[in-house]
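User: Could you write out the 3D structure of this protein bound to adenosine-5'-triphosphate? I've included everything you need below.
Assistant: Certainly. Input first, then the structure.
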Amino acid sequence: MRDAGGIGLRCAGVVHLYRTFEGHDVVALQGVDLEIQPGERVAFLGPSGSGKSTLLALLGGIQRPSAGRIYLGDDDISRMSERHLARLRARRVATMLQGATRNLLPYTTARRNIGFSRIGVPSAELDDAPTAMELLERVGLADQADQVVSTMSGGQRQRLALACAVATQPQVLLADEPTSQLSHLDRDAVVRLLHDLNRDFGTTIVVVTHQPEVAATFPRTVTMKGGRVGSEGRDGAEYAVIGAEGVLHLPSHLTPQWPPGTLVRIEAGPRRIVISHPADDTGIPQEDVR
Ligand SMILES: Nc1ncnc2c1ncn2[C@@H]1O[C@H](COP(=O)(O)OP(=O)(O)OP(=O)(O)O)[C@@H](O)[C@H]1O
């Protein structure tokens, strides 16, 4: 497999609305600003309904934002023609949808699924691509090459879905809950494969996950809250993101101690903001935000 090299992604003021059957608008994303560097590994976290899957689908060019811009490298994919978007999805950005079977053809073999995943790519462009067998070996499924997908275990299907996603040597791999409903052993195997892909080929990797153990393996976590980026974790340190109108979301594990409505004192310096509880008469800051 050639070194595809990762590419960066950037969202600027991204808003997304869904229109329900009853004609109501649901605001899934309400102003997302986010930059992901080439070759970064990022996990999206956040409560159900906070907009993680929507953001992933927009980054993958599967849906278009209602407003705002999304850049893949220098290309504005929010304004791209359908033809260019289809080409981008076929080669540069691979999206693994939630649930392995949504990414696979169940009634045919593992080997054929890999063939189908490259159907939109001209054969001349696949000269240096790995063979189906090489890909299956990489995900530990060489012995299952001729096995029909519907007879495979959940872990095997998820590893096959990953092999199919990278069969076109994408620069970005987006995976929605790639380890949900897997045993611990299978979960760890899939997570290891994702990190190995990034190490070996520089692929930019973004996953959505509800599993803290999975998120902890990523150097950067982005926590969504109410359709916005709430907080971030980088190399073990926590960061809060100042949103529109100066809104600051605390990381959710702090909300029992600092519930909504808590009146806090703010002391702001040029490079430091100290937020403290007025009841704290010791004067020692309880929370320190840089
Ligand atoms: N097709 C749709 N039609 C209408 N509303 C939708 C649609 N898809 C998502 N939504 C709504 O948009 C909001 C964001 O949904 P989204 O699936 O992106 O969140 P999520 O954080 O990925 O949730 P989960 O963790 O449960 O998958 C939610 O309020 C959801 O109900």
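DSSP finds seven helices and 14 strands in the chain.
User: Perfect, thank you.
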